[in-house]
Amino acid sequence: MAKFIWKGKELKTAGETVRAASKLKNKAEGKKFMEAYRKISEHADENIGYMSGYFDSKSAKRIQRICQVKHPIFGNTIPTAKEAFEMGRKMGRKMGRKMGRKMGRNIELGVN
């Protein structure tokens, strides 16, 4: 796997990568950061978009704006905890039904 070097430092973990993204100052710097990250990961946009969801709303929006990415599930919206839970539950049900069809049977998830 290629190394991700940003400002002279190797970013070895997802945490180091998203912390670096959270410190970006503007879109020009965000563009350079994402170009470098995309060279070593085809999932760079999804990764930064997803990890932005672990920040408070203001920081998440800032990271998404500067890096020109969106959350892979929520897009550029910031759901409440309840909304995020419900979206996850719906996705889980949909995936369970899809897997059941592939396996030739109906799978019921134990979630109400």
Task: Explain what you see.
By secondary structure, this protein is mainly alpha-helical. It folds into 2 domains: 5-76, no CATH class; 79-112. Helices cover 59% and strands 4% of the residues. The protein has 5 helices and 2 strands; from the N terminus they run E-E-H-H-H-H-H. The protein has helices at residues 14-22, 27-40, 44-52, 57-67, 81-103; strands spanning 5-6, 9-10. A two-stranded antiparallel sheet has the order 1-2. A hairpin with a 2-residue loop joins strand 1 and strand 2 (9-10). Helix 3 packs antiparallel against helix 4 (57-67). The chain is globular. The N and C termini lie far apart (42 Å). The mean pLDDT is 88.
